[in-house]
Amino acid sequence: MRRHPRRRPGRRTSALLAVSALTGGLLLTAPQPASAANLITNPGFETAGTGDMPYCWEKSGWGDNDFTFETVADAHSGTRAMKVELTRRTDGDRKALITESAECAPVVTEGKQYDLSLWYRTTTPDASLTLFRHDATAGWQYWTDLKTLDLAADWTRASVRTPEVPAGTDRISWGVSVYGTGSATTDDYTMEQVADPIPDPECTGTAAECADGRWDVLPTRNPVRSMHSVVLHNGKVLLIAGSGNDPEMFEAGTFETALYDPETGDYKAIPTPKDMFCAGHVQLKDGRVLVMSGNKGYPSADGTIGYQGYKDSYIFDPQTETYSKTNDMNDGHWYPSATILGNGDVISFGGLREDSTGSVTADLWSDEQQKWLPTWQVNQTWSYWGLYPSMILMQDGRLFYSGSHVFGNNIPGTGSAIYDYEANTITQVPGLQRKDERDQSMSVLLPPAQDQKVLTIGGGNIDSNPEANRLTDIIDLKQPDPAYVAGPPLPQGTVDLGDGPVPQTGDQGKMYVSAVLLPDGKVLETGGALHNRADPVFETSIFDPATETFDPVAVDPEARGYHSSAFLLPDGRVMTTGDNPGNGSWNHDVSIYTPPYLLKGERPAITSVIDTEWNYGDTQRITVDRPIAKAELIRPAAVTHSSDPNQRFVDLPLSVDGNNVDLNVTSNPNLAPPGWYMLFAVDANGVPSVAKWVHLDGPQALSTKDASAHVHSFADAPRDKVTEEGAKRTSQPVSPTVSGCDRHYGSANVCVPTAFPEEVKATTADRCTWLKEHDYGRLKVNGKDDPLKLDRDRDGVACGKGDVRGRR
């Protein structure tokens, strides 16, 4: 009897926090007509089988419940229907499935989609359409839940389209799961293969643009040195600079924020109360932006004290366009993580404290109380997660630390881990390649979020300063013992080593990577540099999660290294800003990428959204002006320093009736944490609409349902090292040179590397030549120490004529 594997006993995984996607991993109803052949054997239960089940149907389910399976005469058509009923339930479900055999289970084709439909009557709201698939190597396994069935006293038709059939799958089985007391009676099942997509439309740009997209540098420049970018639910972009890595602005108390309107191209200055340079930020469920910590102080001139993070926290309100102060965090967190949870709370780890040491305190923002909770109310492991650790919310409420971070080596161990807040345990996850060279790599939860796959791209190490790498790693968190596996290498572009761009060679890749989820279900990666705040790399490509391949596309003409951002706009374009090389300069130019999907002719339009306030488990209706193939929610960006752990793309299974489209919203707030989302409708050619904004509310909608039957086994039995709560401690020692910059030279916004690239010889002349090629200009020596031997004549100026004449 097939069942959904159960989670280990004793784990506090409530329906509220651990319900799996009832809309798992889906591509959606498309405009083409399906083929006429019904692939279901005995779709109306009219043919008797052996025992008490009709031919090609079997009993299935699991858990502690009382149930009956019955063939009844109350049919939609013919003389028979199937009734499954639960009269008592503690956990689990029961379902009638197509028999998992070569004789009965429909044959399917990799990459194809199938339209499924059935007629039903229900006396419970807790019933859903469940799929299993047969892998030619691994055998039968759970695939996904497609649709929750509404209560229906009369015969009602339910229809939905499957995702593309995964590689290695040759057959599928499906039926209706009942996971609450009550019954579901079903009849007249159909399964039809979707016709091949319509041909691509005519190109509306040049041939190169239609293949690779187009970049445009805007005539208006970004007025602030912004390194934090947040796309607000009114379509505007919050660009936070604080002091902008400029110590003179810090000393003057000049802190900046700009509000950019993509529709008009205008920037508005926003009064900024504190230095939010290198803060953390996340969008709360009501659309306000929580900004946590920031820069309390720059490193001392003699290099004995590093950056300091304050405890202050602020909220930016898009309606009033103002900041307001919250209560303080329990610790300073310069460069913190910021992850919103399924109940609307926010958790933060890592960063530097007020005394420049590393914070080992987890801070938790309570959505209910609208404040940071005191330390004693927050589970603590007293672990140091580093700077901007990428903490991605998993579908059961745990957090996946992907290994992407900022500045130097990774955490001890494998460099990646799963953190279980409820159990307060950390389990290492193996497989991350060269884990100490993933400094300022980028990690994204791949589309769709229901698939629970994470891609990590590139990286380097600002301490040892090797050439950045081309590594990518992919992990499937639905596996019982998940581990990273090597992905395809990053494509190579050109690199400017000081004398103009030249082709990359060998294993040269990039750090400071940006990655953006696109509405066609792919990922744009762009920007980067070969070394610590030096040697920009010009390369852009699109990653396809379905094929796990990169496709090089048009390249951003602007350097986008340290302190750059890239993010999706509601019209489907991508905006990039910033670049802050080691010489302290700043790139104020803004680039806009138009992906190929916007050059394929007319776009579909969402002509109405019946309700913009959505609840979990809803069916929401929209109207479109022409047929669409899929729809999804994309959480708007809140990105900085190659980090946006809250970025996600959530599929919405759909049913189509002419221009009316019903969207099935996930019941799992961990898959789509509460907040504002961009709703895109996408046609069969991958062309998206302009987004509509919808508000997905908190998990209250689940309070009347127990969906634990849909907690499917994944990341359930990791076998690597497990760490429980450690001894309470104050902080983690961190070197003042954590940013990879030697502060004995120049001002605090200038980064003379503590370690030069490997090809630069350790001589005064070679180091000074490299600094000259990278436009460092005149460098004052701070104090009497000269650790890099750049001031050989002791005149207080590095790399002067007396320092390099005849010096090796």
Please give the structural blueprint.
Elements: H1 15-18, E1 57-62, E2 65-72, E3 81-89, E4 93-98, E5 114-122, E6 127-135, E7 139-148, E8 152-161, E9 169-178, E10 182-193, H2 207-212, E11 214-217, E12 228-231, E13 237-242, H3 247-252, E14 256-261, E15 266-271, E16 280-283, E17 289-292, E18 295-297, E19 308-309, E20 313-317, E21 322-325, E22 339-340, E23 346-348, E24 358-359, E25 363-366, E26 371-372, E27 391-393, E28 399-401, E29 417-420, E30 425-428, E31 442-445, E32 453-457, E33 472-476, E34 485-486, E35 494-496, E36 501-503, E37 514-517, E38 523-526, E39 529-531, E40 534-538, E41 540-544, E42 549-552, E43 565-568, E44 574-577, E45 591-594, E46 606-609, E47 613-614, E48 619-624, E49 630-634, E50 638-639, E51 649-651, E52 654-657, E53 660-664, E54 675-682, E55 692-696, E56 722-723, E57 731-732, H4 764-773, E58 779-780, E59 797-798, H5 801-804
Parallel strand pairs: 47-55
Antiparallel strand pairs: 1-4, 2-3, 3-10, 4-9, 5-8, 5-10, 6-7, 6-9, 11-45, 12-13, 12-50, 13-14, 14-15, 16-17, 17-20, 18-19, 20-21, 22-23, 23-25, 24-57, 25-26, 27-28, 28-29, 29-30, 30-56, 31-32, 32-33, 33-34, 35-36, 35-40, 37-38, 38-41, 39-40, 41-42, 43-44, 44-45, 46-48, 48-53, 49-51, 49-54, ...
Descriptive report:
A five-stranded antiparallel beta sheet has the order 1-4-9-6-7, with no helix packed on it. Strands 2-3-10-5-8 form a five-stranded antiparallel beta sheet, with no helix packed on it. It contains five helices and 59 strands. It starts with 14 loop residues before the first helix and ends with a helix. The chain has 808 residues and is mainly beta. A hairpin with a 4-residue loop joins strand 25 and strand 26 (371-372). Mean pLDDT is 91; it is low at 1-36 and 700-711.
